[in-house]
Structure formats: structure tokens, C-alpha cells
Amino acid sequence: MNTITLRMTENLFSRLKTEVFRRYPSQEWATFIECAWHHDPEHGLALNVVDLREAREGELDGSVDHVEFAEPYSLKMALELEGHAFGGGVVHSHPQNCRPFPSVVDDDMDGYFSGLFDDFAPGRPYTSLIFSVDESGKFSFSGRVWFERRWQKVEQLMVVGDTLTTFMAANVASRPLPRLLKARLQRFTSALGEEAAERLWRSTVTIGGCGGTGSPAGHSLARSGVGRIILIDDDLLAIHNSERVHGAWAKYFERKEPPPKVLLLADLIKKVNPEIEVIPVFGNILKAELRGLILQSSVILGCTDTEHGRVAVSELAYRFLLPGFQVNVSLESVGKTLTGQILQFTRYVPGGACAYCRGQVDSWRLAVEFMTEDEKQRRKLDALTAELRGESGDTYWRNPPIIPTTGALTTIGGELAADFAVGAITGRFKPASDFFEMNLLARDLGVVSAPQRPSPDCACATVIGHSNQASDKAIIAAPGHWAPSRVLKYVSPKY
Amino acid sequence: MTEVAKRETELGEHRDCETKKERQLHIFINRQKFNETQGVKPLMTVDEIAQLVGLTAETAVVRRSHGESDNYGPPLSGTIEVKNGDQFFVMRKNVKGGHGSDPRIEAELALLRGSGQIAEYVPGTPGAVIYKALPVTGQCAPLSATDVMVQVSAGYPAAMLDRAALPADSPLLGRVKGAVQEAIVVAGRPWKLVSYHPHNGGGAEPWNAQVHGFHSYIREVLSWLGDFK
Q1: What pLDDT, in 10s, does the model give residues A471-481?
Q2: What is the 3-state secondary structure (H, E, C) of B155-223?
Q3: pLDDT, tens digit, for every residue of B33-42?
Q4: Beta-sheet pairing, B43-45 with B79-81
Q5: Which residue from B186, B210, B181 is spatially nearest to B120, judged by alpha carbons?
Q6: What average pLDDT does the segment A132-160 reach?
Q7: Bridging pattern class, strands B87-92 and B60-64
């Protein structure tokens, strides 16, 4: 069966454990849950637990050791499902040291509830999770989802918040760390531990933008032992990229047709470690057909200098519970003197402020990024006409600013993003702030750190984890004239 | 008959058929439609309504919906008048989940279910199996059927199954073989254990873990129920 990644916020996970372990260690307990989801036929399901519907007095039988739902609780939950668009489900505990694998009794329970909830809310996934803890306190779980008339296994549970914790399902075999990689990561594991290396090897990272920032990020993640890397960019290599793009070997510029940047980076990653699975995509992270693929990731790195890239990474964090790290760099100068090498870093997590709440979005630049060439030309002409009339042409067109950078600065930015991604995936460290900016040329690096809370009415506060069920609150989508994305086949190039 | 007239007759019959279907008495259970063809009739027992969704009056709670999602009546009983478009909610009284017994007991109960006997495992320390509605044979039986509870012995299956329990208010207590022993609560119900030892000189073959289990113990229990004073 297809495997699924399930996500929930730290707060919800804490609430869930408190509820189902309330009679631990020998007695079980349960709660109904509500889940949002994204589905596409190619990449399957990505689920988010968005709420619990805990039992009230008498709704679960407290006189028995096992779980027993009374009719009023079942009826209440079935009717609740009619009031919104989420799927229903159950989480229950198995006693201490008992494997969290479904029993025959659980099979009967899940068979009943999946059918009952489908009567009231047809076509939605039914999710069943089992939690248990052993005597050393180690948490384990298993999960399955009834969707499209078949059971699908939950492979991993990601708990997302200030930290990122990933649990692999107890009934899913994990990918062992290759022997050669263990040897190569000796210094890494002596600092962060072997479990950290295993987590990285099991993880997937998406890199949006494979230019000056994304290419060193990908290079660094490959060396750190990330097992699967998705590369997304819709640009071809140009001669002026050679100063910034890692993997832009001279031989590429001798070709008649420049290669896509994603293939350059794929080649670089494969040369570091051929066992890493690399998925190069010629496209844009906003494209709907890529969402299911991106949601297979633990984190996404925003490595473009576009406004829409930043907004996309920000929305993926709060609506889909996919944490993102956005890095931007720029140079400042006064006359011929460089006065600033600016690095700006933002961590987007559910519950944190989005790009709009942080005031990070230049809406004019964003609009220009979405315009067709025809519209740009028309606007420029309108601006010229206005100026000839003696009016300001700015209403019609302003040239978007070009952001100057150097390869050294973009490399630092990319490595920074990769480093914080490693910290998030391993759970070993995190940035002290969700946002900071520094100037490498300033005294004390001129670090500015600006905590920002979400506006209470903003979607980043109201639709956390609501996935496709909050499509009416989507703030950005790829324009219709953008070409469809394509997954490219990586073949080791002959130089 | 001309082709046109023939076609008109066919269409008319089809319309009559469709109108007849629409005129059929129909109800909704858990938002699913059921009509006369499926067993809906103007007077139905609660058991008949429950059976439409694979349950019984014993295992389900049947309520009438009053239209709004949170507006529904108390549990129904007996026979009720059914009108066109009536909405009902029929849910299992209890839905069990949990770690359950070990796979061996589950397999034995599955064998029993396969032959039509309902047996329920109740997790606990110790766990227990409740055989549901076992027939009480014999002349002048005080009741036609009864539930019987058998505890999972410590060390099962190496340790033999032993004793059996009847509901605490059962008229069979004191009449079936074996002294009435301690009271115990299992699955929320009070029971009384009876000193019945079929595999320990009680008439059945010596316990053999390779052969015996809950799927075979039922035979001893049935024999015990049929042999009352």
C-alpha cells in the first residue's frame, strides 16, 4: 500500500499524548481526531491532524481496561463531520510495552468507524493511530488511513513547531545508514550522534531555487548525509551564473544548449554520494502538480530571490505544516565602496508569523513576477505615454530592483540554510530567532533580530494545518501562463 | 400497434415504474436511503431498522433525527411508525478497540466466529472470553440461552482453561455442576464463577495445548449447560 506522512503541531501532539495516556501504563484510552489532507494520484496523501474531539464523561467506558466507545460519542463525532470539510479518525493507546500494532479488535473498530464516517462525510480519509510507550519512555506508533477504498500505511509522524521531531512507524522498515556513509560522517556523528545521521539519511529536503544560494545548500546537505533531495528550479545555466552556481563546470558552457540548473546540482550531489536519491524538477514550487512531492519533505529551503518564492515557503509552513528556511542576500554600497554584505534569514514554522505579517513582501515585485511579457510591455508603454502627458508613469510601471550579490555571499547564505535544516531534522539545534539579518561588513556584524507574532486575523493564525480544506484562504497560486513542471531524468553527464 | 404507439406505451410504463419507486416508502439511516425493496415498511421494530445496517436491537442504539444535526431523540424501542423520508441514526451501542489478546486467542475466536458462534475477548488482567447466547438444552430449562464467561488462565495456552462463570443473576447458578464461587466483574457485568473443571477429572480429555483452546472449550461449556439439575 502507499505510505503516508502525517503531521501535527507540537501543541496538538502534547494534547494528544496527555489524552490517550491518561490511564497509563496498563489501561488504554482514546480520542477522535480531525484531519486535513492533500492528495494527488502520483504522490498520494499528506495528512495533518488539526484537532481533537476528546470524550466527555461517559462517552468512553472508564470501567474497562481497553477502549470502548459509547454510542453518544460515535454519533456526536459523525454529526460533527458534517459541519466541516475535515476527515475523521481515532487515536488510542496500547498498554506500556505492548506493540502499537492493530489487533483484531482494532481491525473491527476501524472497519466500523471508517464505514460510519463515510456515510456522513463521504470520500474523506479515515485515520487511525496507535500510540504506546515502553518502560524507558520511548514513544512508538503505528497508523493507517482508509482512503479510496483501501488501507494505506502511515510511514512517519512529523511533529512540527519550534522543533521538528520525526517518528518512524513501528511497522515500517527504516532505511539503514550505508556503511560507507557511516565512515564518512565520523566527525559529524562524534559531534551530533549516530541517531542524527540516521535521521538525516531517512529525511527528504526540497530546495526551491538551485542558483547561487540553492546550489551550495544542496552541496552541503549531500555532504551531511541527507538521503533524498528534491530540486526545483525553472532556469537554465547562463554564463553569468558561473561565479555563483556550485557545479557550473566550464565544460557546460561549451554546449550549444545550456543545461537546467537542477541537473547541474543533481550531478554535484550524485558525485558527492551516488546513493542519495535526487529528484530534479524543472519548474516552480508554486505549481500545484508539485505540491504532493514537496510535502514528502521534512523541510523546504527557499533559495530564490523572488517574492513569490518567499510567500510560497511561508504558506507551506502554516497551511501544510512544512517548516521552511528562507535565505536572501544582497550588497549595499555607497559610491564605489561596498558597505554591506547583507544576509537575511527567516524560519517559517506553524504558529509563527508569515511573510506578510513580517512585512517581507514587496507586492509590486510579486506582481511583476506573475506578469506575462505582453503585459510588461503594455505597462511600460502606458508608463511612457503617461510621462509624455506630464504624469508619473509609476502607476503603470516601475522597474523592479535588481539585487546585487556575489558568489561568496550567496554561498554563505546557502550553507546557513543547509545548516539550520540539519539542525531541524536532527533535532539538535535551532536558530535563536525566527528572523535575523546581519551585515558581514558591520561592527559586531550588525545583527538585527525582530520577533514577530502573527496577526490574529491572518490566515497564518487561523488555518494552521488546514491544507487543501483551506483552499479558499490560499494567498498565492501559480499563474496560468507558466509552463507545467517536469521531473527530469538525471543521467551522469559526459563532459 | 404502430411503432410510435409501442414506444409511447413503453415510455408510459417506464414512467409508471419510476413514479412507483418514488412513491415507495423510504427512510434514511445514517444519511443512507433505504426503501421498501430493502425492507422498509410503515410499522417497523427497532430491531428491523437496525438490521438494515447490519446491526440488531441488542447491539445498536436507534434514534430518530429531527432534522437539525444536533436535534435527535432518545433511544427508540419496540415498534414505531415510519413515515416517508424519516431520518434515523443507528450506531453500535459500544465499539471496542485496543491491544486485545495475544494472536492465538484471537485466532481461536476467529474459528468460532467462522462457525457462527459469537465470542468476545475482554482484555484485562486476567483477560476473559465471553461466549454469547449459548443454548441451554435439556427439559425444563429455566432459560433458552445464556452468556458464559471463561477467564484466560495465567500461563495460557500451556495452562489449561478451567472454570466458567455465569451472569450473577442467572437461574442456572446452583443447578449446573460445580460449587458457586466468587463474584467478579468483567466487561462491566457482574458474574459468578463456578467450580467446573472439565480437563481436570471433569470428563474431558487431559489438556493438550496443541489441540485445545477457547474454540474447543465451548464444547465442554455446552455440555455443562445441558446437564443441570
Answers
A1: 999 989 999 99
A2: CCCCCCCCCEEEECCCCCCCCECCCEEEEEEECCEEEEEECCCCCCCCCCCCCCCCCCCHHHHHHHHHH
A3: 999 999 999 9
A4: antiparallel
A5: B186
A6: 93
A7: antiparallel
Question: What is the distance between the alpha carbons of residues A198 and A176, in angstroms, rounded to a whole number?
Answer: 7
A461 to chain B, any CB pair closer than 8 A? The answer is no
B200 grid coordinates? 481436570
Q: What is the mean pLDDT of chain B?
A: 87
Who contacts A186 (Cβ-Cβ below 8 Å, separation ≥6)? none
Q: Are residues B98 and A28, on separate chains, in Cβ contact within 8 Å?
A: yes
Instruction: Quickly list DSSP for A65-123.
Output: SSEEEEHHHHHHHHHHHTTSSPEEEEEEE--TTS-----HHHHHHHHHHHHHHHHHSTT
ipTM of the complex: 0.86
- pTM for the model stands at 0.81
What is the predicted pLDDT for the residue at A1? Answer: 43
pLDDT in tens, A426-451: 999 999 899 999 999 998 898 989 78
Q: Report how far Cα A128 is from the mean position of its chain's Cα atoms.
A: 23
Check CB contact under 8 Å for B92 and A61: no
Q: Which A positions 115-144 lie with beta carbon below 8 A of chain B?
A: 116, 119-120
Residue type, B29: I
Which residues are CB-neighbours of B93 under 8 A, at least 6 positions away? A70, A71, B59, B60, B61
